[in-house]
């Protein structure tokens, strides 16, 4: 939505405004300052949207952002941080021209917000995922069956997304912590749940892992 708003600002206000101004100049009539003012306002909106839009687009790769409880608060805090940091950069240009001090305090406040967000989203320490260890551990055979059905499609010798292969027992064992992180804690995998893993199957992965991720 934010990226669409930015594009709309350019296509429906900034460029048409410029065309009108150029037409007025060509015709030798007085230029209506409203177009310039309007374009400036939209351009200011876009300036402050830039960093939040980038963060929102890339957050796709970071499940701790979009999968967080209260993910909308995460986005709002990132937008505020992005706007604050941008404020310093916008002011920097003017300050340099006028030979004044650059107001870095806005950027500092934005960075503090980002660090605060990081602390808030910090994952639970390993072992504290669910509290007490599961009473019934799952078997490696069960895990292999689930991985074959739900993961190997996108993680094999031909297609190894992010270099992760899960098409052989030793590969599964080697990636056990990342697998649990992605498929149980973040629920980011299977991607878009394309292979329709069930909650019961995620739980099998968790129980196997918590019992020590043994190959038996
Ligand atoms: C539809 C395709 C698809 C399926 C099915 C799938 N993955 Fe992935 N996997 C991906 C893609 C794409 C990435 C790279 C993600 C990125 O760039 O953010 C990835 C990345 C990963 C990573 C590395 C993540 C990191 O940040 O280090 C792990 C671990 C992983 N997948 C585990 C699994 C497990 C476990 C399953 C099954 C429960 C699974 N994947 C099923 C497509 C898939």
How would you characterize the overall build of this protein?
With 216 residues, this protein is mainly alpha-helical. The protein contains nine helices and no strands. The protein has two domains: 2-121, no CATH class; 140-210, no CATH class. The chain has helices at residues 2-27, 33-58, 63-66, 71-98, 105-121, 140-150, 169-174, 176-185, 199-210. α1 runs antiparallel to α2, α6 packs across α9 (199-210) and α8 (176-185) runs antiparallel to α9. The relative contact order is 0.08. The mean pLDDT is 90. Bound molecules: heme C. Heme C (HEC) is lined by residues 61, 150-151, 153-155, 161-162, 164, 175, 178-179, 182-183, 189-191, 194-195, 197.
TL;DR?
By secondary structure, the chain is mainly alpha-helical. It has helices at about 1-25, 35-60, 65, 70-100, 105-120, 140-150, 170-175, 175-185, 200-210. The protein folds into two domains: about 1-120, no CATH class; about 140-210, no CATH class.
Bound ions, cofactors and other small molecules, one mention each:
heme C
Query: What radius of gyration results from the CA coordinates?
Result: 26 Å
How would you sum up the global shape? Answer: elongated
Oligomer: single chain
Number of helices: 9
Total number of distinct structural domains: 2
